[in-house]
Amino acid sequence: MNVIIVGGGKVGVYLSELLVKGGERIKLIEKDPATVAELVRKLPADTVLQGDGTDPGVLEVAGVRHANVVAAVTGTDETNLVVCSLARFEFGAQRVIAKVNDPANSWIFTPKMGVDVALNQADLLAHLIAEEMSVGEMMTLLKLRKGEYSLVEEKVHPASPAVGKTICDLKLPIESAVTAVIRKGRLLVPRGDLVLQVNDEVLALVHSSRMPEMAEILGPAGKGGEPEAG
Q: What strands lie across the sheet with 2-6, from one edge to the other?
């Protein structure tokens, strides 16, 4: 895969190192000479190109016409948007990804502006923190469809209303499904008549909006599940 990365900051360097280790062909564009001097000490010299990523000529030299992906990850939203628009509309790049620095600018990073995927770091971090605060002991293993769904894992709490119930009796939230149950190191197929036990590790596919409901089912009673005895 041919990848062009515009921006030699921390995100650009880390992404470049990751892709180089994975055997991908990359070209990292950075306009600051001092930063370029540092980059060539961290990356293969032929992967670094000094120049302005908003200059069509520089993108051409970097091989944008043959790029599978162009990622604009500079610290300036205006620059990232210009790079994306050039890559898509001038050179027909297959996939264009942009880093959004200011959440207030996220509304303009759309396909109409040449952006396939806009990564808003502040928004992602805020949602991850909020998610961790709301789902208790639930662990997110994998995110799907740009975070819309998650594969999660949680142990059945001893005080959970799910203890002793079959999967078909759990009244799972919509847009969710139990995908596996691990019991004492053994993987069990989650058929409807499988009875859950304390400390079963339940793997489930859940829509992001339904994760608190899933946590309530598997967590202790009184946390949104069955009421605690008074």
A: 48-50, 25-30, 2-6, 69-72, 95-100, 117-120
Side-chain-side CA neighbours of residue 93 (13 Å): 32
**3-state class (DSSP) for residue 24:** coil
Cβ atoms of residues 141 and 206 within 8 Å:
no
- pLDDT at residue 94, as a whole number: 93
Q: What is the pTM of this model?
A: 0.64
For each of the domains in the chain, give its residue range(s) and CATH number, in order of start.
Answer: 2-123 (3.40.50.720), 130-218 (3.30.70.1450)
Give the separation between CA 134 and CA 18, rounded to whole angstroms: 32
| Strand ranges inside the chain, DSSP E | 2-6, 25-30, 48-50, 69-72, 95-100, 117-120, 139-144, 149-155, 176-183, 186-188, 201-207
Q: Which of 169, 133, 168, 138 is nearest to 153 (CA)?
A: 138
Which phi-psi region, left, alpha or beta, contains residue 32 (left: φ > 0; alpha: ψ -120 to 50)?
beta
In percent, how much of the chain has pLDDT > 90?
70
CA distance 36 to 45: 10
Q: What are phi and psi of 201, to 5 degrees?
A: -95, 110
